[in-house]
Design brief:
This protein is mostly beta strands. The protein folds into four domains: 60-142, Immunoglobulin-like; 145-220, Sandwich (Immunoglobulin-like), CATH 2.60.40; 225-310, Immunoglobulin-like (Sandwich), CATH 2.60.40; 314-389. Helices cover 10% and strands 41% of the residues. The strands form seven sheets. The protein has a seven-stranded antiparallel sheet with strand order 23-26-25-24-27-28-29, with no helix packed on it. It has a five-stranded antiparallel sheet with strand order 3-2-5-6-8, with no helix packed on it. The radius of gyration is 39 Å and the shape is flat.
Length: 399
Amino acid sequence: MRVRLLVAIAAAAVLALAVWALRNTHLDRSDATRQAETTIAPKKTHAPAPPRRHPVPTDHVEITGIIVTSTRQPIADAQVKLRAMSAVTGDNGRFRFVRQQTDGDVHGHLAVRAPEGLALDRVVTVRPQARRVDLGRLVVRSAVSRRIRVLQDKRPVPGAHIAVRFTWGPDDLVRRLRTDAQGIAVLDFDAPEFVVMAWHPGSGRAKRTVRERDKDITLTLKPARTMRVRVLDGNDKKPVAGARVTILDNGYRRPYWPPLRVAPTNADGWTTVAGIAKERIRMRAEHEDYASSPDYVGSVWVRDELELVLPKRVTVHWPIIDGELPAPPEGTPIRLSYPEVSGVIKSSLLVFEHPSDRPWFAFAPDGSIAYLGHKRIDITDVTQPASFRRPRLLVVKLK
């Protein structure tokens, strides 16, 4: 009996010792975990709220940038201009423009004028359907003043006209100047590369591409030429009186500066184009009774006279019948694929004035299309009627 009692006491003692050991282990583990949580776990912090942005309409594009110095420090109170838009930078050097989207690329002159005489001029391109254009950091530097000297026969030309534009991008002239009595003008323009053009009535023209390293600029005027232009009827080759001759550009889609004013042709079809100082030119003749002449593009230095032929306008009555779509109703305006030609529906006929070249397509206001053919035949001989249909969607998969 005594032995059993001793065994029971020993078992109770062992059980109590085991419970005490387990309790101490649990307390040590809790202390270690609590210490790890207080020393390792980072404190929860709330991120700063993003700057508030003004909403941009769906059909507009947002243009942003930061004006900084050469040491990447933002500049406040800098004047930023882009086309007809202007803005002033804040303390962080940021500026923002919002303009309407366009169908094609838009090139603009971005002009920055900052305090302490810092400046920047560059071309900005906005792609079609762009929602946001970020120009990034724009570095301004000390404005550079260049002296432009205009000479002819090594003599200064006072009162000469000077125009400045970018080498590529916008065709707008960004500066207009006049030379003083010594034939000198001062230009403050800080683009890496640009074009300077000089002109004087009766003296000639000059042009030069200026780069960043060029300081003083000298332009020598080339003597201008005079060319006689005669406008003829395309059918009987008789002279056309009262025709207008227009100088379009220099043959490379660059505007001809300064614009040349040409008098209408006389009774013999002649007119004179004076002040030509370009080796290449593009011109066109127009008359209200004729279609515009094909553009003449070529050299004017190898000739003194030039003939431009005006094709006679003819009235075309093209039959329109019901096809995939019903014929457009009476009075519907129709646009033709030939440039600057339009027509109208009259008595189930497409009526329009056109030269002898057949147009390919006719477009109704609802987007439907009529195919008129592409053969270069007499357009007055219309035997095949046309009908309008819905435009087709062509999907091409490229591997």
